Give the backbone structure.
Amino acid sequence: MQNWPLFEIFLRSKNGLSHKHVGSLHAADADMAITNARDVYTRRKEGVSIWVVESKHITASNPEESESMFDPAEDKVYRHPTFYVLPDELEQM
Amino acid sequence: MGEIISLKRESLLKYVLQLADNALILGQRLAELCGHGPILEQDIAITNISLDLIGEARILYQYAAEIEGNGKTEDDYPYKRDVRDWQNILLVELPNGHFGYTIMRQFMFDCYHYYHLKAMTNSGDERLAQIAAKTIKEATYHLKYSSEWVIRLGDGTQESHDKMQEALNDRIRFFDEAFIPSKIENDKSLNGVAVDCTKIKASAWAKFTEVCQTANLEIPEVKFPQKGGKDGVHTEHFGFILAELQFVQKSYPDSNW
Amino acid sequence: MTEIQSLEKRFQDRIDAEERIEPRDWMPEKYRKTLIRQISQHAHSEVVGMLPEGNWITRAPNLRRKLGLIAKVQDEAGHGLYLYSACETLGISRDEVLDQLHTGKAKYSSIFNYPTLTWADIGAIGWLVDGAAILNQVPLCRCSYGPYARAMVRVCKEESFHQRQGYEIMLTLANGTPEQKEMAQDAINRWWWPSLMMFGPNDSESTHSAQSMAWRIKRFSNDELRQRMVDMIKPQTDILGLTLPDPEIKWNEERGAHDFGEIDWDEFWSVVKGDGPCNKERLAARVKAHEEGQWVRDAALAYAEKQEVRKASDGKTKVA
């Protein structure tokens, strides 16, 4: 018979923060993935909320397209506040 | 008056030890599985339950030592008593068997443990009420965990169903001991302190029945429930548990570890 | 340059620039294979490593020690799990790597083929074996392969209590009765050399080292790490008032390090090749757990599938 599917585990370490990927594990279904994640990834109180996603449902960008995907953002300095010149006497903005 | 107080103390001590013994022996049994579980994820889950239970036992033994107040420590009770002084129910000392047996034993215990702790949060003994309030969070999770596994295995494959039915058939006669009061649980001096275990029986059985039904398991009729553990009359397995548990302390008495 | 050569060059440039390689990035097949071998061996070591210590859980001498030991052995299961997951990002399933272990094709750390005889062995393992493991593992947190490095960060964070736990056990024994002190010394005598063997063969004999260093899978050589181990453990042994079973250990002022004796390499290679005292038992225990768990894993999956079908048909009736 086949393997239990792989799930990706995301934890919210405390309220106010977003969920963050912490690793993966095997479970027969999503409910079991939650309890397994509780037992495996929150033994030291690392989380207050768990998300699980079966790994096969994640669609990832293609690293071979990284240059065209992400490099064009590099020189768009006008998106950052320091691009704009302000007079010295203005102390805060 | 002084005599009444000391009588009550004696009874309270025995009662606390009964609770502690249940948690410790089941924790010890589950710990045997560490490294031998059916899959790593469940190895970790089972050892978590083991840690919870041994942790619970430890708090209770500490309380017992305080009640005695004669310099005993949490370790004197688990490491220095012989078979007849232990008051745990027989269910928790039964061998792990295949995973179906382990889960069935856990589920039966959790049905009792959860409702027992729930009632104990109202104990007239403040300390016991506090301990219950803390441990019921763990017991709630244990009950969810074991219920889910009973259902999963009962309603899984034909093989797993048969194995669970086998475990249920063999173990059901050990379920009711938890709800048959021992002398200590009936002790008048513990009125309002000890949980009336006859009163939690209905809720525990309701949960038990509901989960077994969902799992397609048939609960056999119990003609003669096994009991005696609460009075120190154990199964033959128990001496071997103690042989392991106490081996180091028995070989090198009164050393620090 | 052929296409593959230029890919390899770009790959090496990224490594040299300390960039991390992620699962879907292009990588040389040999890099992938090397990682699979190393990460799976590492995972197997964690899981097989549960056995020698696990068998003392039921005999731990007090409740505090029992809880600590269970938590430690449980962590090892967790570490095995993190590492198997890292391995899976390289395109090999956990079942496949487990199969390699169970059929004897894969190796694991030889140290776990030695028996634990007394409670002091639990102290010695925590202190020496976990001590050696930490020296090996900390540099792996900066390994060029992202998922491995991240798993190791987690492992190292959790493992920091293991060595302290072991040392505390040793310290208690060393300060205990004469019998306890003797027990502690005996454990050091039996575990010291196998712990030094954990760093692998001498650099001159190590076949995979150079390439692994170039790929930044490995950052320090076997002999460098072994030297660090000796330098770390010697003063800790002195504090215990115990000794290491090596008459040649002494401080070398010139090198600023300890000199030490030669490992029994015959023993090393014999245990690696499967002739250690417990190789067969360890493997048999893992195979047994896996085989006896088969029906459980199958049942859980069958139940999950039934639930899927039930949900789907529930959905349909609702829509209708």
